[in-house]
Specification:
- The complex is a heterodimer of chains A (about 425) and B (about 110).
- In chain A, about 45% of the residues lie in helices and about 10% in strands.
- Chain A has a 5-stranded mixed sheet. A 3-stranded antiparallel sheet of chain A has the order 4-12-9. Chain A has a two-stranded antiparallel ribbon with strand order 6-7.
- Chain A has about 425 residues and is α+β, with helices and mostly antiparallel strands.
- In chain B, about 15% of the residues lie in helices and about 20% in strands.
- Chain B contains 3 helices and 5 strands.
- In chain B, a hairpin with a 5-residue loop joins strand 1 and strand 2.
- The chains are: A alpha+beta (about 425), B alpha+beta (about 110).
- The interface between A and B is medium-sized, with 25 and 24 residues.
Chain lengths: ~425, ~110
């Protein structure tokens, strides 16, 4: 392995030969020791080629402005599933499932437009009262003076409830959505239940089956405002059910996108506030700061570690020659700490002047469709938390998952003093 | 200096002097006009500085060229109209003195 994380990462990140740095090693994220590697790359080799790394050969794009360049040139930097899609892992061809995030324009545009009205401003207004009601109920039910897992009791519970509403999925079965979401993104080497692509497909086939039933039910009645009804009645997607692998691809995209990222922002946001008590005090003194704190949390957490593209033509990024066919990886975790684009990037500051200037949602045609819904859920969570709890104590370091794609927190022990 | 009038979704008007050469988006952001988020900072990469251009000014501001990056990003914005523009793509000129733009219900 090329990133020996059992030594002091600070020393190692600066001593290791540049061409040996492999920021794709999932242990760097699991152990939360990736920062010095990216600091060095941004300084010494901001567009960095790693030959034969753990996930093959690839370019790392580490600066904010270079990531923006790749994001805004989809005609060169493709998301097409057949070329490799959006993650650094090259899945065997038969397991490459298309979805609108792993398509290029114009097909991407047609499919995306079918589902985007669900997060239109008027719909968000409609959703906010149910989100607040649920958030209050979950927070009021939390134990006092007792250690509990914030991930399980708050982050997963709230985001899975939201997801079941978006799909109009039976609420009593909602834990399946969390399970499928985790299976869809699990690294096969993480030591979990998904230890091969065959196993992943076997589990996700259960999701496909359940959602195929829902599709036929929704297709048979007039259009509704849930995601499955929208797909079943959408001009560009009404035959999607006949292409099960593409239907499954889109389902997993919507399940992961609508769930995992917000979940980890709910967990990572609390960790940031616990470690920066002066910032939490600032919020309690001036609750209106929640509107700038939420995007700062999303920057700070960077719930998606990277997005991948594949060059369709020879091109140049910051003076480096990229060849057609090369794998190009945009490290959001790095761009979000780029001192040339973000003032004091290594500080968590809830009242930044331009807090939304971060990469966590991506930019360009693939920019997160649910970004304002994510912000709404987080805003309501923190409004209700600060009303109730003057203090929440972090009892242990958050446990992070083995992944170079999802910046996941699997467990976070906290205590709310009575 | 040219004046641009920004009208919020609730009808609140803001008359702002915007230097020639700046964009309509920058004029709003520099003066804390609510309703224009401009997440990407003017790279035409997010569609959160979406405005409706007043009919009287459409000839002067023009519309995004079909197939342009602006047209592409706008196609993902919520509640677009035929007079929709991304305000980061409208550069203020002496000709645009008096320009009126309206903000949508929300940016995303």
């Amino acid at each position: 392995m090329n990133a020996p994380v059992h030594v002091d990462p600070d020393t190692d990140a600066h001593r290791i030969p540049l061409d040996q740095i492999d920021v794709s090693d999932p242990r760097l994220y699991q152990q939360d020791v990736y920062f010095p590697y990216f600091e060095r790359l941004r300084r010494e080799d901001p567009v960095h080629y790693r030959k034969d790394g753990m996930y093959g050969s690839f370019w790392s794009v580490t600066k904010f402005k270079d990531i923006m360049h790749v994001e805004t040139h989809p005609e060169i930097y493709s998301s097409d599933a057949k070329l490799g899609g959006i993650t650094i892992t090259d899945r065997p061809m038969q397991y490459r499932r298309s979805s609108f995030i792993s398509m290029d324009p114009p097909r991407h545009d047609e499919q995306r437009k079918v589902v985007s009205p669900i997060v239109a401003p008027a719909n968000l207004n409609n959703m906010s009262s149910i989100i607040r009601e649920r958030t209050c109920k979950v927070l009021d039910g939390l134990p006092r003076n007792e250690t509990f897992d914030w991930v399980e009791h708050v982050s997963i519970e709230l985001t899975t409830l939201m997801l079941s509403t978006l799909f109009d999925f039976p609420i009593e079965d909602r834990s399946k959505l969390t399970f499928w979401s985790d299976c869809a993104t699990a690294d096969v080497n993480a030591g979990g239940i998904v230890n091969s692509e065959e196993k992943r497909l076997e589990i996700l086939s259960e999701a496909l089956q359940a959602f195929t039933g829902l599709w036929h039910e929704r297709a048979a009645r007039p259009g509704g405002y849930d995601l499955i009804s929208m797909l079943a009645h959408g001009e560009a997607t009404r035959n999607l059910v006949n292409d099960p692998m593409e239907y499954l691809g889109n389902l997993t995209l919507l399940i992961v996108g609508g769930n995992d990222t917000t979940r980890n922002s709910m967990s990572g946001g609390l960790a940031a506030l616990c470690k920066n008590p002066a910032e939490y005090q600032k919020l309690r003194d001036n609750p209106a700061l929640v509107t700038s704190m939420v995007p700062e949390i999303i920057r700070w957490v960077s719930p998606i570690i990277h997005m991948r593209r594949t060059a369709k033509a020879d091109a140049e990024i910051a003076g480096k020659q990229i060849r057609a066919g090369d794998k190009v990886v945009m490290w959001y975790v790095s761009g979000n700490r780029d001192e040339d684009s973000i003032d004091r990037p290594n500080e968590f500051i809830i009242d930044r002047a331009r807090p939304r200037h971060h990469l966590s949602f991506g930019f360009g045609v693939h920019r997160c469709v649910g970004n304002r819904l994510a912000e709404l859920q987080l805003t309501i969570l923190w409004e209700e938390v600060m009303k109730r709890f003057p203090r929440i104590e972090l009892m242990d370091e958050p446990k992070r998952i083995y992944s170079n794609f999802i910046h996941g927190i699997s467990e976070m022990k906290v205590r709310i003093p009575a | 200096m040219p004046t641009v009038t920004y009208i919020e979704y609730d009808g609140t008007e803001h008359r702002i002097e915007v230097p020639v050469g700046k964009t309509v988006m920058q004029g709003a952001v520099d003066n804390n006009v609510p309703g224009i988020d401009a997440d990407c900072g003017g790279e035409c990469a997010c569609a959160t500085c979406h405005v409706y251009v007043d009919a009287a000014w459409l000839d002067k501001t023009g519309l995004p060229a079909p197939g342009s990056q602006e047209a592409s990003m706008l196609s993902f914005a919520a509640v677009t109209q035929p007079d929709s523009r991304l305000s980061c793509q409208i550069t203020v000129t002496p000709d645009l003195d008096g320009l009126v733009v309206r903000m949508p219900e929300g940016q995303h």
